[in-house]
Every structure is written in structure tokens, then in C-alpha cells.
Amino acid sequence: MSDIQTISIRNDLHEIQRVREMIEAFIFQHGLPVSLVAPFTLASDELLTNVINYGYDNEQEHAIHLQIKCEDFALVLRIEDDGCAYNPFSAPDPDLTTELLDRPAGGLGIYLVRQLMDQVEYDRKANKNILLLTKQISFGKGNERDGMH
Amino acid sequence: MECIEEKQNDVVILGLHGRLDSVTAPVVEQRLLSLIDGSHRQIIVDCAELAYISSAGLRVFLMAAKRVTQRKGKLIFTSLNDEVRQVFDLTGFSSILHISPSREAARTH
Prior knowledge:
The complex is a heterodimer of chains A (about 150) and B (about 110). In chain A, helix 1 runs antiparallel to helix 2 (about 35-55) and helix 2 runs antiparallel to helix 3. In chain A, a hairpin with a 2-residue loop joins strand 2 (about 65-70) and strand 3 (about 75-80). In chain A, strands 1-2-3-5-4 form a five-stranded antiparallel beta sheet, covered by helices on one side. Chain A is α+β, with helices and mostly antiparallel strands. Chain A has helices at about 15-30, 35-55, 110-115; strands at about 1-10, 65-70, 75-80, 120-125, 130-135. In chain B, a hairpin with a 2-residue loop joins strand 1 (about 1-10) and strand 2 (about 10-20). Chain B is globular. The N and C termini of chain B lie far apart (about 25 Å). Chains A and B meet through helix 2 and helix 3 of A and helix 2 and helix 3 of B.
């Protein structure tokens, strides 16, 4: 089964809600496990927030193109932006073992994305950053009640 | 996101209603900071109606916890739902922030 839904948004944090709505609609319409909503919603929120806040060196309006796809029992989200070349997955994990006062504030978003997804990929093609997030779909018993796994 | 404040003697309870993300984090940060910088030593952040949190929200909570510690106060997060709790767990925030199952339990913390 292969089915694709696309959306383009402006580089504005308030647009992220439209992506969430698309992800929810896609998952429900295709009868996929509800447990996929939370990880994809959070992962896309984190990555889009980073692109919108830090990805551009100007104040212009930019388009970000997303595509969600169900293929070979995996859900795949693709994010393409024309911002500065940057691979968010190249940053090291934050140190999550420190005490409160030493705990770093940065790197948490990308760290969450890595925890929530089975696979994360970055590519740079034709001056675009392309991010691919993949999560296997398991139609196991009790899957509907699961949290984010 | 709606922030609803309640004062009960020397404790202030800040109820968060809605989603805490990159759009709403600044507003919550402002409210929390003004509570902490005010005279309140005991603050309970009631997350019963907090539907969602992203790293933007975690950063606000982290900043608040550091500030409260410096002022020798107490900050407790209560009634986290499963999704929010999982984000806390994944990032290790469950071990550095004070979490309580309910407001009542928090008051006797």
C-alpha cells in the first residue's frame, strides 16, 4: 500500500498546527494505529520549530514542503526547506545525566525526535534540506492503548 | 494555552490549559517568571489540563526550576498525563523536576 499526502506551509510557527492536523487526518483516514499520532506530531513540531527559528539568514517568507507517506508498513514524513544547509541530526546528544543546575537547555528537541522515530535521515539536494522520519507500523494487539513507543 | 492562577495561603497554583509548544512557551515563561520573582516560594504547576508539551515547554520548566532553586523556593509539577509524562521520562526531566500525581499530594510534598 502506498499513499501520499502533501502540504506546504510558510515559515511561521503558527503554521505548525496545520501540519499536525494533516498528520492526524492521514493516520485516522488510513486506519493506522492512533499511537503514531503523538510521535509524528511532536517530531514534526520540533523539527519545524528549529527550521523556522534558525534555518534562514533573512526575514523573508519561505515555503516548507511536507509529505507523509505510508509504505511497506512504515509511516514516513518528509520535510523539505530551502534554508541554510544544516543537518539537525549531526548535533551530539545533550547530556541528560547532569544535576538540575547544570542541565543544558539545548538539543532536547532533536534528541526527542531520535527517540520517537525508528529512523532519521538528512540529505541536501538542489539547495534544499531534506529530512526523512520513519517509524514502523505494528498492528499488534493492544496497540491502540500504547503511548509513544 | 490558558494559564489560570489560584492562590491558597502561601501556595500559588498555576494551571496550564492547552498545549505548551514553541508558540505558547513565551507566555507561560512570562507567567512563571513573574510568579517566581514575586513573593511566592511554593509554586504548583497543575498539568491536569496540559494536553501536550514539546522541548520549548521543557526549556521553560527547566528555567523555572533553576530560578526557583536559586531563590530557595519549591516548584512542583502535578497531574501529568501519559503523553506529557513520557516526554519528561525520555529527556530525563522526571529525575530533575519535582513531580507529584495530584495537587493534594503536592501540598504535602
